[in-house]
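Complex record, two chains
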Amino acid sequence: MYKLFLRCLISVLFLLGFSINANAEFKVGFVYVGPTGDHGWTYQHHEGRNAVEALGIKTTYVESVPEGADAERVIRQLAQSGHDLIFTTSFGYMDPTNKVAKDFPNVKFEHATGYKREHSNVSTYSARFYEGRTLLGHMAGKMTKTNTIGYIASFPIPEVIRGINAMTLAAQKVNPDIKTKIVWVFTWYDPGKESEAAQALIDQGADIIMQHTDSTAPVQVAEKAGVWSFGQASDMQRFAPKSILTSIIDDWAPYYVERSIAARDGTWKQQDTWHGLKEGMVAMAPYNSAMGSDLIKEVEQLQKDLASGKAHSFTGPIYDQKGNILVAEGAVADDGMLAGMNVYVKGVEGDIPQ
Amino acid sequence: MIKIEKRNDVSQSIYFLTPILAIFLTLFGGGIIFYILGFNPIEALKFFFITPISDLYGLSELLVKATPLCLIAIGLSFCFKSNNWNIGAEGQLIFGGIVGGGVALLFYNHDGFYVLPIIILSGAIGGMLFAMIPAILKTYFNTNEILVSLMLVYVAKLLLDYLVVGPWSNPEGFNFPETRQFSESARMPILFDGLRIHAGIFITLITVFLSWLILYKTYLGFQIKVSGLSLKTAKYAGYKGKTMIIIVFMISGACAGLAGVGEITGPIGQLHRNISPDYGFTAIIVAFLGRLNPVGIIFASLIVALTYLGAETAQIFLQVPKYTGQVFQGMILFFLLGSDYLLFFKIKFLGLKKNEL
C-alpha cells in the first residue's frame, strides 16, 4: 500500500514536471567534464554553446561533472528542469545519458564520442580528428631532421590509435624513414604527466611533439626545447608561438547550432554523426610561416583534397606492424574498420597497451 | 571593553552548538559571496540549499550522496578519536572498490542471493587490509601514518587505473578504461522504483549503531577515548597501544571499503577510473563537523552532501560557478575551527568601570 502511494506520488511529480516543460521556453543544456577554462576539450564545447546562445536560444551548462555517480543526477536535473536538448560532452557520460533518456522520452539527448544509442531520443556525434592528423603527419614528415616523431597518447581506444596511424601513414608518404615513438599517459588532462612525457620523447631524439591530450604543457615544453609541436583541440598558438606549426581545432559550433535549431523546430531525428574537415567540425589553426610557403601550399592542397573526398587518410596499401595487409592497394578503409581500429600500422614503435 | 578568558571546563552544550554556529556563519558568508558575484543572495541560497531537496528524487539523491560520506566519516572518527591521523580513506575506499569489483567480475552472470553479500564483505576486507599497511608501519617501524596513508591513495588510484585499462577492461568496450557492467545479482537492491537510493543506506545505519555501541559501551571504546586524550595516561593504564592502533585503522579501512563497494554496486554499477569524487577527503570535514560523534556525523554528512547537490542546482538555475560548492565546504570547516576558539575561551563584554577612567 505504502509503495503504491509512493509510486502515485512519483508519477504525479513526473507529470507535473512534464506539464511545466510543455509551457516553458526552449532550452539547451550542456554537461562538461572539465572546467570551461581548460583551453582544450571543454573550452571548445563551451565555444559551441556560445554560438547557440548567440542565436537567442537559452542555454545552461554544468562544468567539471565527474564521470562517476554524479553524472546521472546532473543530466536528470537538466532534463527535469525543462531543458529540451542536452549535450553530454564526454565518453564517460554514455551510460548515464542513455539511462536518463529512457525516463524522459520528450527530451533529446546528444552524447559526444559514444557508441550507445539505446533509445530513439539519443544521438551520438564525434569528429574525424584523424583527418587533421593526416595533415600533421605530412608536416611532421617534412619538418623532422631526426626522423623521429614523439606522440603523447591518452588511452588506447580506437580514436587515439586511429590518430597515431593516420599521422604515421601521412608522414611515411613524404619521408619513408619516419619512426613514431609513443608515450601513453593514461589521462586526458594532467599537465605534469604530459610535460614529463614530452621531455622523455625529446630526450629520445624526437624533434616533433604531438599530443592527444588536452593541456598546453607539451607545446610549452617543446617551445623551451626548441622543437616543433602541434596544438590539440583549440588553437594553442599563444602558448608556444615559435614551436607550434598548427593546431587541430574541434569546432562543435556548427553542429550545436544545427541540432539546436532542429530540436526547437521539431525536425530533430536520431542520428550518428561523424563529421570532419568537409563539414568543418575539424578545422586547422593558421599554419606557422616557419614551414615555408611551399609546404604550406602542399598542406593546404591536401586539406582541400581530404575535405572534398579526393584524398583519404587511410588509402591502401596499409600494413600492420608485422607486415600483414590491412587495406588493399587502391582501397580505402571503411568507417566500420576505422571505428574499431585496434592495431598499429607499420612504422609505429612499441605495442598497444592491453 | 572585551576580555578573553580561558574556560576551565568545556561545556557540553557549546560543544554541539559551535557546528550549528559554523553552518549559520557559512550561510551568511555564502550570501555575501553570492551578493558580490551579482546574484540575489536569498534566491541563490534557496537554489543552493532548498531546491535540491524539494522533491523525492532530490531527497533520495541527498541520501545517495551522504551514504558514503557518513560511512567513511564514522570509520575515521575511530582513528581521529584515538589520535591516529588516517588521511588515506580515499585510497582505502578505492582499494575496497577494487577488491569488491574484482569479486563482482568473478561472479559475472552468476545468480544467487549470496553474490552481493560476498562482494560487500570482500570490499570491506579489502579496505581493511589496505588500512593496515599504515597502521603496521606506524606501530612496528615508527613511520608517520599521515604520510603513509596519504601516499597509499595514489597507489590505489594507479592500481585501479592499471586494472580498468588493462586486465579487467570490458572485452566489448573498445579498450575504453572501464570494466563490464556488473550483473543484476551484484547490484545493491534499489529501494523505490525511479529513485537511486539503494540498500547501502542500511549498511550505513547499522555501522553507525555498531560504532556508537563500540565507542560508548565497550572497553575498547574507552581505551580509544583515553588514548586520544592522553597517550601517556593510556600507557600508564597498561593499554596495549599497538593493538589498538591497528584495530582503529582496521575499522576505519573497513568502513571506507564498504563505502567504495557501495558506490560501485550501487549507483555506478561497474569499475572505472572515477569511482569516487574524493569522498575519502571530504569525509574528513564530515567527521570533524560531526564532532566525531556517530549521530553528529549523520547530520554532518547530510549537510556536506547538500553542498554538492546545491552546487549543481545553483549552477543549473543561476549559472553560479561550480566551485562555490567547494567554497562552502571550505567555509564550514573554517568557521567550525574558528568557533572552536569559543570552546576553550570565553569572551566577556565588560562595561567600563569607573576606576579605570
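Note: The longest helix of chain A spans residues 2-23.
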